[in-house]
Amino acid sequence: MPEDAPFAWTDRFLIGYGPMDTVHREFVTLVNAMLTCPPSDMLQNLRAFAEHAERHFAEELRMMEKSGFPQTQCHADEHAAVAKSVGEVLQLVEQGRTAIGLDLAKELARWFPAHADYMDASLAHWLVKKEYGGAPIVLRRRTEARQG
After folding, report:
1. How far is CA 98 from CA 34, 48, 56, in A?
2. Could you please report the per-residue DSSP string of 3-43?
3. Which one of 1.10.10.10, 3.40.50.40, 3.50.50.60, 1.20.120.50 gives the CATH number of domain 11-147?
């Protein structure tokens, strides 16, 4: 995905737990597709995102429950709120109101970075500590903006 895309993957989104980082890349790709598609493709792209979100959130819930993650309910509640919004918007887009799909994509692009930085990074830290006895290590590429 080009770096000048409206919502492009960046190393800033890395949290240091491979399975979650992989799913998050897909999340970003699908949201960007909604941000950049013509209105005629919004329904197809939103459906793809809805399927992804269902799998994504279910997998994280499984990891949280299996590992005894202390903040499971809070994290799951946030996912449930997003899933509810996606379902409601999907119904409206199916009725031809494609612009609301774009509004949802913009909100997801706004929401995701903070969610990943706090909730998902906390989960990643918990999982890595349980699995390996340490904290995640995240290596990020230097960017021109950060070098100066």
Report:
1. 10, 15, 24
2. TTSTT---GGG--S-HHHHHHHHHHHHHHHHHHHS-GGGHH
3. 1.20.120.50
17 near 132, Cβ under 8 Å? Answer: no
Domain range list for the chain = 11-147
DSSP assignment letter at 71: T
Q: How far apart are CA 131 and CA 148, in angstroms?
A: 37
Q: The whole model's pTM is what?
A: 0.88
DSSP 134: S
pLDDT digits over 36-70, tens only? 999 999 999 999 999 999 999 999 999 999 999 99
